[in-house]
Fold each of these.
Amino acid sequence: MSVPAPFDYHRAQSVDDALSLLQQFGDEAKILAGGHSLLPAMKLRLAQPEHIIDIGAIAALSFIRKDHSKIVIGALTPYTHIERSDLLRKELPILPETASTIGDQQVRNRGTLGGSLAHSDPASDMPGVIMALNGEIVVRSPRAERTITADDFFLGTFTTALEPDEILTEIRFATLPVHTGTAYEKLMNKASHYAIAGCAAVITLDSKQQCKAASITITGAATQTSRATAVEKALVGQKLDTDNIQSAANHAADDLELISDIHGSEDYRRQMAIVVTRRAITNALKRV
Amino acid sequence: MTTKHTITVTVNGKQYQSEVEPRMLLVHYLRDMLDLTGTHIGCNTSQCGACVVQLNGEAVKSCTVLAVQADGCEVTTIEGLAPEEGSLHPLQEAFWEQHGLQCGFCTPGMIMASYQLLKHNPNPSEAEIRKGLEGNICRCTGYQNIVRAVQDASQRLHTSEKAPVTAND
Amino acid sequence: MGIAAMVGTPIKRREDPRLITGQATYVDDLKLTGMLYMAVLRSPYGHARILDINVDTALQHPGVRAVFTAQDLKNSVGNIPIAAPLPPHITNGMGRRGALAEGKVRFYGDPVAIVVAENRYIARDALDLIEIDYEPLPAAIDIEKAMQPDAPLLYEEFGTNVAVVMHPETDEIDKVFADTLANGGVVVKDRFMNQRLAPSPMETRGVVADYRRGDKILNLWSSSQIPHLLRNYLAEQLGLAQHQVRVVVPEVGGGFGCKLNIYAEEALAAFSSMKLGQPVKWIEDRDENLAATIHGRDQVNYVEAAATKDGKVTGLKVHVISDLGAHCQFFTDVIAIAFTLPMLSGCYDIPHIYSSCDTVFTNKAPTDAYRGAGRPEACYIIERAMDLVARELKRDPAEIRRLNFLQPEQFPHKVATGALYDSGNYAGALDKAMEIIDYQKLRQEQKRKRANGELMGIGVSSYVEICGIGPKGTAPFGLYESARMRIEQSGTVIVYTGSSPHGQGEETTFAQLVSAEFGIPIEQIQVLHGDTSSTPEGRGTYGSRTTAVGGTAVFQATQRLKEKMKTIAASMLEASATDITFEDGKFAVAGSPQKSVTFEEVAATANTSNELAPGIEPGLETTVFFEPEACTFPFGTHICVVEIDKETGEPHITRYIAVDDCGRQLNPLLVAGQVHGGIVQGVGQALYEEVIYADDGQLLTNTFMDYAMPIASEFPVFELDHTVTPTDVNPLGVKGVGEAGTIGATPAVSAAIADALEVAHLNMPHKAEKIWQIIQQKRQAK
C-alpha cells in the first residue's frame, strides 16, 4: 500500500499562523502547499514528517498581480492560474508557456509555483525559468522578511536557501525590458514526462539588433538547476544568427554535473542540453 | 497515535461530516468511507489519472490529495456527473456511443479529465484532446475512440440546450 | 434495427452503462463484514539468502491480526501451480516454489511475509516492522551470462540456470543454407532482442478471500482471466475439494495475459481467511504490479535466413533463448516452445525451418503470457528476417513478402514448423494496406525527404497468428469452452459462459449471436460469466479464443435448444417436428405460415409444462462444451510511417495503416477497438516500454515514473480496414482479434525506424537516445 506514514496535521489560516506552527514543530514539520511533490514522497515513505503544516488554505498567497513595475506571483498560485493569466501572457509569456508543459491538467490544478521552487527538484521546469527571469524569491520568518535572488536560492538537489523557520511567500519579477523575447524548450522523458534536458532563454536586443542581455538556464540535465553563464557570455554583444547561436549553445552543459540514468546518459543529456538551448534561444529571438 | 480530524465535504451535492486520520488520501475517503467506488486507483504516483475527481470545480488526482485538504470543499465524482439520477452526462453518452472504453477501469478518470478539458476548451482540436488527456493512461483502447468520444461530447454539449457545463460545478 | 442484422453490426456495448457511471464492481470495490486487509512484504534484493526473520514487533503493532512467513504455510499451502512442467529439470522441481520465499529470495519483489490487519494503512505500517536479515548474493540478470558455467545459480541443486535445452541436429538446415549459397543465393543473420515488458493492466491484481468455517466453503473473488482453472488449481494447492472453493471474477480492469495465472497472493489471502475466520482483502499496488506480477516477452533470438538471389526464402534457422525469470508461473516454461517456435514460418512458404531453444532462470520476475504470448516474438523474428533479406537483395520489403506468401489455394496448409494453417489471403491484406497508404507515392515522398536530409521510414509487417486454441492434448487440460443456456418462461435467454471477458465485450457479442439465432430482441438476452458456482466448467478468456471457442459453444447451445423448441412447437401446432420452420422468432408449419407459435409461447409452454405433450422433458436448458479440432490463423498487414527528429532522435509516427483479417466479424465496432488497443501496445513495445533491472537485481522501473506507458498524444489517427477470409474450423467462421494489433504493430514500427535510419536492424525499445546514437555513428562514419 502506497500510503503516508502517520503524522499530525495542522492547517494554517495565515502566514503568521504557519510561521508559529513551524517554530513550534521545527525539523519535525513539513510545509504542505499543493502537495504534488511532498505527498508522492510521503506515499513512498521517502519522507516521513511527524507534522504537516498545510498552508493550502491561505488565500492571500494565491495571486498574480502587477505592483508598480513588478509582477508578483503568490507562492500558492497553481500552475493553471499561471497558464491562463492574461497579465502573464502579456508581461512574462515564458511563465504560461512553461506552466502549460508541466505534468498534466490535473497536476497543474494542484501544483503550486512556490511548492515547486521550495522543493528544488532539478528535473522541474519552474526553477530554471524563475532563474532566467532573474526572479526574486520572498521568504518570511518570525524574524523578518527577506528577498533572495533565484541565483542564490537554489543550492542543489532538493536544497534551497530557505532557513528552517522560513516560508516562501511570493515571487517578484521585473517586467521585461523592451526588445526582449523569451522561450522555454524541453525534451521530455517518456515515462514521467520530466525534462531530460530543458532550457529557459530570455534574450534582449539593443537598437542595433545586437544581443544586449541574455539569461539562459538549464533544467533536467544536471543535479542542479543552473545558469549557463558561458552561453550567456557567448551571446552578449553578438548580432545573433544561426551559427553564433549554435556555437553559444555548444557551451550549454559546460560545468554541469550531468545526470546519467535509465532515461538518458550523461552524454545524451549534454547533447540534448545543447539542442534545447539552441532551440530556446532561436525561439526567444523570434519573439523579441 | 495521531489526532483525527473532523472534516466537512460536499460530495456530489451531499454534505458529509467525517472523522479521518490526517494521512487518509482523498481517494480512500471517497471509496472506503463514502462507498463511492467509481473513482479508481491505478498507479499511486499521479501518472495514470484513474482517480481523477473534481475538487471545487477543477480536476485533481485524488490519490495525491489528503482528505483533510478537502475539508470545506466540494467534490464531484463519476457518480455525481450526470445531471439527474438515472440520466447520463453527454460525456458518458459519448464514451458509450463511440466505444471509448473496454475494461472500463480508467473510464471514470478519463471522463472526469475530459470534463475539465471541455470546460476550458469547448471546441478542442484532435491534438488538443490528445494533449489534454496526457495525464490519463488507458491500456485497452489505444485512445482513438476516447478522442472520438470527447469530440462527440463536445458536439453534444453544443447542441444540448443546457449550459455547456452541468450541475455540481 | 432488424434482428437478422444483429450479427456483423457495430452496436454499442451492453457492458458500458455500469462502467461509465462508476457502478461496476471491481475487486477493490467489495466490502464484506469483518473484512481484514493483507499486505505483502517483498524482497528488496534480486538474490539473497534469508538468514533470519523476526515478526515480533509487527505482531504487537495495534490493529495487526497476523503475520505469516513460509514456515506458517508448511502443510497448508502447496506450491504455485504450473500448467505444463517440462523435463528435465522443471519436472524435477526446478523453478517450483511455495507462496512465500523460503531460504532465499530470487527476485526483487519476491514475497517473503504477509501482514493481516484491521485496515490497509495499518497493514502497510506493519510491513516496516518486520525485521529480515538478508545475505545479498550475486544475481543472474543478463540471460546469456546466466547460462555460463560461472553464473550465480538460482537453484544450486541443479548446477545450472538452464531449464530446457532443445538443440536438434542442424545437418539438414546447414545443407539448405550451403546449397542456397552455392546457387548464388544469400544468407542474412542477426541477433534480435525482444525486451522484457510489464503487462500493466490499469487495474492491478486483487483478491478477497472469505472462508466460511461453518460451511467449509472458500469464496474467493479475484481479478482473474480464468475463474475455473483458478478454482481447480487453488483447491489443490490448499488441500480443499473443488466443491469447497467458489471463485467469482467480478469486473476486471484489463488482463493482457497477466491475469491468466494463479498467483501466490490468491493462496495467501485464502490461507489467511482460513486461519483467522474472517474475510481478507489484498489489493496490489502499482509498484508491486510492476515488480511481482508476471512480465512478458524477454527473448534473445539468433536468426539466419537463406534466400535465392531472386528473393525466395529457402530456409530459416532460429535459436531462441527464453528468459523465464526466477521461477515458474502457470505457463512460464512453455511460452517460447509452444507459441514462438511453431509460428516462425509467418505468412510464408518456407520449405525448411530449423529451431532450437534454451530456457533459462534469472533473478527477475517470472515471465509468462503477455498479449500475444510467444507469437509476437515469432512474428518479429520472421518479419525482421524478411526485411533483412529485402535489404540484402536491394528489393522492396513489400515485394519480398509478396514473393514468399503462401497462396490462398494452398490452404489448409501445414508449414515447415508443423503448424496447420486454416485459411488465408495474405496478399489480399498487403495489397489493401498498400493501396490505402498509396505505397509507391509514399516511397517517392521518402526519396524526396531523404534528399533533403530528413529521416523518414516506412515499415511493413505481414503477420499471422495462431488463435482459437486448441485441439485435444495441446495443454494438460482440454482447451474447450462451455456455454450453459437457459430459456425462461418469459422467453428471456440466459447465457452462462465459461469464458471470462474483461473488456472484450462478449456480453454484447454473445447476445448479438443469440439474438440473431433466435430472432429475438437483444434486450431479452442476458450473458453471465465469472462465477464458478453458476457457470459450467470453463477455460476463461485469453489467446484471442473467446469468440472462436466460447462463441461457438454459445452458438451450438442455440442450435440444440432450437431443436427442442421445434419439437415442442410441433406438438403445440399438431404437426411433425420435421415440418417446423423457425424464422424471425416464430415457429411455423412449413407451407402453412399462419399456423405458428412465437418463441415466447414455446418458452412458456416448455417451462410451465402442463401443456407439454407426454414424453417431452420440461424446461429449456442445455450445456455445451465446444472443443475445437483445429486452430484459427488470423492475419493482416500493418504499415507504419515514422519521421525522426535528427537532433534528438525522437521518432514520431505520422501514419499507421492496419488491414486485419479475423474472419467474420460479429461486431466491427469492437473489432476496431481491439485493433486500436493492440496497435498501441505493440507500438509501446517498439518505442518506449522496457523493464530494466540493474546488474545486482534491483528493479529500476517500478513506477510509471520510470516504466513508460503510451499516452494519447503520441499517436496519429490509425487508418483501419479489413479483409474477410472465413475459417471452417468453427461454424461462425471467426478467427480472433484480441492480440492481432500487438503482433502486427511491433515489427512494423521497428522496420520503419530501421528504414528511416537506413540500417539493417536495431533493438527495441527504439528510445530517442538509441536512435540518436545511431545517427551520430552514421555521421561519424561519413
Amino acid sequence: MEQNTSNEEKESKVPENSVQFLSFTLGDEEYGVTILSVQEIRSWEPVSKIPNVPSYEKGVVNLRGAIVPIIDLRERFNLEHSEYTNLTVVVVLQAVCLGRNRTMGVVVDSVSNVMNIQKENIQSAPDFGTKVSTEFINGIASVDNRMVMLLDVEKLLKLDGLEEDEAEDD
Amino acid sequence: MSIDMAQFHQVFFEESFEGLAVMESGLLNLDMGDVDSEEINTIFRAAHSIKGGSGTFGFNAVAEFTHLMETLLDEMRDGRRQVTQTAVDVLLGSVDCLTEMLTAIQAEDEIDEGSVNNHKNALEVELNGGAVEAPVEVTSAASEPASSVITVESGLGWKISFSPHTNLLKTGNDPVRMFRELAELGDLEVFVDMQGVPSLLDLDPEDCHLSWTLLLKGEIERSDIDDIFDWVEDECDLSIQPLTEEVERETINEIEEAATPVETVKPASVEVVKADGNEDKPVAAKAKKPKAAASSSIRVDTSKIDTLINMVGELVITQSMLSLVGEHFSIDKIDQLKTGLIQLERHTRELQESVMNIRMMPISFVFSRFPRLAHDLSSKLNKKIELKLVGEHTEVDKTVVELISDPLVHLVRNSLDHGIEMPADRVAAGKPETGTVTLEAYHRGGNIVIEVKDDGKGLNKESLRNKAIEKGLIDESTILTDKQTYELIFMAGFSTAEQLTDVSGRGVGMDVVRRNIQSLGGTIEIISELGVGSTMAIHLPLTLAILDGQSIAVGDATYIVPLGSIIESVKITNDMVNRVAGKGETFRLRNEYLPIVRLHEIFHVESAKATNLMEGLLVVVEGQGVRCGLFVDDLLGQQQVVIKSLEANYRRVEGVSSATILGDGSVALILDIPGLVRLSNQ
C-alpha cells in the first residue's frame, strides 16, 4: 500500500510514466534493458580473444573502427553455456560508466520485443540473500504474466577490474 | 555590441604567447654592438599586437604593462636610446612577467601584483634613466615630423577622414570599436557619409560602404590616434589633419549638405547598412575564428591542405574508374582492375601520409625556448656557452612536440650544468673557453632523432660506477658494459654532481626523462668520451597513431609486435636451449643468454601449433632494456597498423599495449614487450 501512494506521487510529477524496455531471453529466463541504452543488435560473429581475462569476457570485435568488448551474459550470470549459432544475438549497449561513454556487446539467446512497462509495475528485486546474486538487477516487472528482470546497464558495463584501472590511470 | 568576447580569448592567448616567443627570441638575438633595427622592429610589433589585443579584450593590466615596454622599445627603435644589456635584461624579465600575467588571466587566476609592480618599476627606472628627452614630446615629434610646426594647433584636436575599403568588415575590424577608443581620448563627433551606399538590390551586407569624418577635440597626441588606426591602415583611406576652428566649421557644413539628401531618399537601405554593417556582420566574420581555436588547435600550412585536396581529387578519379570497371566486368578487364587497385593503394597511402603531415610541426616549437635557457643559465653558472640549433625544421607529430619539451629541458640543463666545464678548466684542458652545446634533430628511418651534444668533460665511467655502488644501486661485483654504466644515470636516486645546484643535480631528473621518452615509444642512448663530451640521442617514432608492426601467428590468433622492438627472428635447435633451475628456459644467442617467453603459454592459446621449441620461431625482442626470445608459431608479414585504444571501451590488459584492425576487419592485439616479460616472470 505504501508503495502505491509513492507511485501516485510520481505519477503527478512525471506525466509519461511508462518506460520502454528491450527484452531478450537467456534460456527460459526473460530479461530487459532500457531501450535508451541499446545501440544496435547484431548477429554473433567471431571475436578476437583477450588473454588472461574471465571466461565470460569473450573478446573484442571491430565495430566500425572502434574496439568493443563482447561478454557472454549466460556465463556472466553463471547460467549453463550454450553453443553459438547463426541465430545467437549480440546486443550492443552503451552507457556512461566511470565518467566515460562505454560501448559493449552482450551475447544473448534471442531478442524478444520492445515493451512498455508502467513505472508502478516495476518492483524491486527480491532478496535471496547470498544464494542468488541480484547485483545487476534493477527491478522486476510482470508482463503478460511473465516475469521480466530489468538489468542495470551501468553496472553490467562496469567489468571487474575496471575501477582499479581507472585509479591507476589517475 | 553583444558579441561574447570570451570566444576570442583563446585566439588572443595563442597569438600573445606566440608574440611573446617572438619577443624573447628577438631580444636574445640582439647584438649589443651592432643593433639590427629590423630586429627591434619585430620585437616592437609583437609587443604592439599584444597591447592592442589585451586592450580590446579589457585586460587593462596587460595593456598598461605592455605599453611601458613598448615605449622603451620605441625609443630603441628610433635610435634615441642605446641598446644596453641591462635594458635587454629588463625587457626579458618583462616578457616573463607578461607571460605569467597572461597565463594567470587564461587560468582565471589572480595576477601576482607584486611581481608585476616590480617589473613595472624596473621598466620605469630604465625609461627615466636612459631617456635623454621627455618621452612624451619625443613621441609626437618622431612619428610625425611635420607636426612640430603645428603642435600648438594640435591642442584643439584633429580632423580625421576615414573611408574604409569595402572589405574592412571582413577582416574583422569594427569601426564602432575604433570610434569608441577615439572617444576615450577626447570629445568625439562622428559624421557618417552614406553616399557610397548602393541601392538595396546591389547591396552586399558584408561590405562596408560608409565613410566617416571624425572631429576629435582635445589635447591629443597624434601617435595615440595612429595607434587606433594602426590595424586598418592598409584597408582604408585615412587622412588626419590638425583641427582649426575654420576646418571644423567647413567640415560640419560639408557634412550637413551631403548627408541630408541621402537620408531622405533611401532611409530603408541606410537602416540596413547601419545595422548589418556595424553590428551583425563583424559577428559573422569573426565567428569563424573560434572554430579553428577550440580547446586544442593546430596551425597548418595551407600548402599541406592543398596537397590533401589534390589527393582526394585523385582518389575520387580512381574510385570512379574502378566502379566503371565493376559495372561491366568481364574477365579480360582483370588487368584494368589490377591497375586500378594499385592506384587506389598508392592514393590511400599518400592520403594517409598527408593527413599525418597535418599533425606535423617543426621541432623549432620546442627548440625555440632553449636560447633563453642557455642565456640565463650561462650567466647564472658563470660559464661561457654557445648553443647551436641544427635541423629546427625537422617535423614531428604534434603530440611528440608537446611531450618532448620537458625531457629536453632536463637534458639541456644537465649538459649546461654538468657537461660544460668552467672557462678556466676548459682552457687548462686545451679546449676553447666557450663551450658548445648542440641541439640537433633529424630523421632516420621511421624515427626522428634528437641529439643533445656537448663538448664538455664527458661522463666518467669510474665515478658513475663508484657512485652506484655507494648508493647501493649495484653490487660491487657487478660487471657492466660501457653502455650499462651510462645507463646508471637513468636510475632513480642517482646524481653525479659533486655539489647540488638549483639548476640540476637532484637525481630525480634522468629517470623521469627516460620514462617520458619511453611513454612516447622512444628510446634514449648515451655516447660519451671522457674529456671530449657526451651526446644524448633520443629516438622517437614519427607519429603515435600509426605503428610499423610485424604480425605473428600463435594458433588461430594474430598479434602485432612493434617492428622497432624486434631485433631478429631465429629458428633454434634443442642444443641452444638451457634450463635454469629446471624451469626457466634460456637460449644462447651470440654469447648472450636470453630468456624464452612462450606466448601461447602466457596467453593461454590452446590452438597453438608449435609447442616444441624446434617447431616454431623465436622472435628476439627488446623493450625497456630487457631482451627476450618470444616463442611464436610463425611470422605473417610486416604492415603499418593504426593504433586503436583498448581501454576506451574495455580495460587495460597486461602484456597488450593496444589493438588494431587488420585488413579482414578482425581485431589484432599489439603486444607490449616489457609487459610480456613481467607477465612471464610471474
